[in-house]
TrEMBL record, chains A, B, C:
Homotrimer. The keyword Cytoplasm does not apply. Belongs to the aspartate/ornithine carbamoyltransferase superfamily. SOTCase family. Pathway: Amino-acid biosynthesis; L-arginine biosynthesis. It is an enzyme of class 2 (transferase). Keywords: Amino-acid biosynthesis, Arginine biosynthesis, Transferase. N(2)-succinyl-L-ornithine binds at residues 142, 176, 236, 273. Its EC number is 2.1.3.11. Carbamoyl phosphate binds at residues 47-50, 75, 110, 147-150, 269-270, 297. InterPro entries: ArgF'-like, Asp/Orn_carbamoyltranf_P-bd, Asp/Orn_carbamoylTrfase, Asp/Orn_carbamoylTrfase_sf, Asp_carbamoyltransf_Asp/Orn-bd. Catalyzes the transfer of the carbamoyl group from carbamoyl phosphate to the delta-amino group of N(2)-succinyl-L-ornithine to produce N(2)-succinyl-L-citrulline. Is essential for arginine biosynthesis. This is N-succinylornithine carbamoyltransferase. Pfam families: OTCace, OTCace_N.
Length: 315, 315, 315
């Protein structure tokens, strides 16, 4: 495997999940694999779980880690071709990407959607800029359109928790005061499309995700109906995709409650706003998997890095 | 030992001081103790000495270190129970604490007093939030009401420097242009209460520390009288505790001078404002112990981490 | 060697360049040299290449690394002697320097010129403050007046790329919208004075560098004439030195182009503003050495740290 940019870079999901579970049982087993290899984590946006779990995963594999908050610590980057750079950007992605790739063996990047310019967000200028100009493997730590490390952690969590071969899984939109990206929802949808599951998305009308991603996944606008007999309920807010980045709906009736959840397991990527996205009772119940999802972020990152390191050593 | 939250977590001070001195003589002696163990340093406030000395102590013990500036790099945390989180906080301490504890074996936290809300400061919402919701050991890197790593370094320094069994020690308030917390003064007072010493606090009227901490320690409002025959003079500013967080007195007559110091040793936790808190001549004299206090921060942190690691390995 | 503050700390340039090339061929060869040694990287300004390459170099040598963004994470420092510190500075360089030196074996510092106060910039208050009050070796990661790690990387790059014993080298000023320091240009000039080369500086009148540095180096105000038969063209903007920090000229005729470059190799320290300092065609051509210069930053830092570590082990 060269890069881990999206779910489609997983060649065999069930095998990856099994290997991740092995790593979880024995996190330091491959500590020699990453010896004398360096990973650089570049954050263009804030991060808690991704920051710590990816560092931890790399250290479990014996790698050296360099963390950089690109926005505060480095230079404002230019992405346009042919730009006369006499304004606010000090360095072009062409140079930045090539330069960074000389100081490490793997680069991991977090760069959120702006939610103001759909075209630019979908072009994934930061991630694809690095992909275009760098020679080393790239790991997506959440980009404009995807968060595949989260989705992989979610798959590991569901594998651990499921009690039937083909569970019913519902992705349920929730209200939120701020405009949030589609990345987590997108990657979860893509992940579910690889799984044996009865998968439904529920959200208010006008909150349809990109059809190129949701494809023929069932959309049920009636949340109550969607949640019937659910085994897993994944709750997440996103802003409008069609009316790009807009927050037209903050209807608290969409908040997840114990009553709505029934006996299903509750999932969320975190951070989560309590009593806005989901009521306290759900998060504080034994049905909540959110802490275990976060825990599995380490092993999702670790299996990804392990696959990349194995590819590197074969070259 | 589980946590190091305050001086009261030290089970045997004189033994800890002796062990710290052994570590100082041979800092890498226990390098295998922390192998494959990770510490996460979470800074909610700025730090120089604590940042570097705690990292250094952890590395001396062979630990892996992750440093995070929570305010800039993560999410604004909510501490209230039952809050409808539709305002500025993005993540609840319940989730944050549980999540962080999955990525490391020990968490160290710095979270200063606000000095605006006494009740909230005394509740130590950050430190106690982590204590309540995390399963891993916690180290206090300065909280609202205490700075026990500093006080332990001070105890090591005094042990090295004292020339009599029961020295006279004076904690002398000093003027400062900004409102400063009580944490350093509190922990120093608590530390002195464990020591064989003739201990006096001197400060202007109205600057009494929390009586629950100062207890029956002698308070002498006449600085000159307090300083008579002192062996150690610990100088520190703090804002008013009774008129919480207020700076009603900036009287430069309280500044420490060579004349006032006499032949005593001078101590301060740093950073210190020269010629406001203490005159240049004192800091530049051989009677100043401030650099050695800072040096001992490493061994204070190291003995704390060593004790915790030893507890972990017994579980 | 004690410190690496400027080019003049290199005792034998050609030998250093050869050793750096050996390290480049086998970066981990000296991994035991830095065992149990700690380097602290203190950034008073932003950094990409220096931040990553110096960390990487230290890790290649087996060192432990602590990175601190002094401005955001620590305290505002005072540099004046005798100052009554009742304003914005919280800690004096005297304490800060002594304290930091207790937590590490080597300290590396980046502190740019202010470009507003020539006298203070030339006094190098940060770097010289650390030099004055610290006992440990200091590495200059770009100061007010020099960037000797960059110049050493440039020397390595030129050694790799030169096709004649005495190449013609031109330092060519370029326009830029912001006022930039003289550090890179200064150190490059000093480096060229140690090399066998036909060296010319070209810039608009009024942009003369400090004569104490340029000495008797040829200055040719006619860029075209200067560039004739050049083998290496080093392009760099700097603000006026005589009219200190002023940007009186932004004439785009000084931008480097393929036409002007001819068959010469192009060099720049990065970050570079495309189509302002140099046109795209130059950076995208095979004549551009900028990525290799950045790559050699690691080995420049590594040979410097290696020399210092060897000195330390002899003490």
């Amino acid at each position: 495997m060269k890069n881990y940019l999206s779910i489609s870079d997983i060649d065999n999901l069930s095998e990856w999940v099994k290997e991740a579970q092995k790593l979880k049982a024995n996190p330091k087993a491959d500590k020699k694999l990453g010896a004398d290899k360096t990973i650089c984590l570049l954050f263009f946006n804030n991060s808690l779980r991704t920051r710590l779990s990816t560092q931890k995963a790399a250290m479990n594999l014996g790698m050296e880690v360099m963390v950089m908050n690109f926005g505060n610590e480095g230079w404002a980057l230019e992405y346009g071709d042919g730009t006369i750079m006499n304004q606010n950007t000090s360095e072009h992605i062409k140079e930045a990407a090539q330069v960074v790739s000389q100081f490490c063996d793997i680069v991991a990047i977090r760069a959120f959607a702006s939610l103001t310019d759909k075209e630019q967000d979908e072009a994934e200028v930061v991630l694809n800029g690095f992909k275009k100009y760098t020679s080393i493997p790239i790991v997506n730590m959440e980009s404009s359109v995807g968060h595949p490390l989260q989705a992989l952690a979610d798959a590991i969590t569901m594998e651990e928790q499921k009690t039937k071969v083909k569970p019913k899984v519902v992705l349920s939109w929730a209200p939120h005061p701020k405009a949030l990206p589609h990345a987590v929802a997108n990657s979860f949808v893509e992940m579910m499309q690889l799984q044996e599951a009865d998968f439904v998305i529920t959200h208010p009308e006008g909150y349809e995700l990109n059809e190129a991603i949701s494809k023929n996944t069932t959309i049920e606008y009636d949340q109550k109906k969607a949640l019937e007999n659910a085994d897993f309920v994944y709750v997440k807010n996103w802003s409008s995709y069609t009316d790009y980045g807009n927050v037209s709906n903050q209807d608290s009736n969409w908040m997840m409650t114990m009553e709505k959840l029934g006996s299903a397991k509750f999932m969320h990527c975190l951070p989560v706003r309590r009593n806005v996205v989901v009521e306290d009772a759900v998060l504080d119940s034994e049905q909540s998997l959110v802490i275990e999802q976060a825990n599995n972020r380490t092993y999702a990152a670790q299996i990804v890095l392990k696959k990349i390191l194995e590819s590197l050593s074969k070259r």
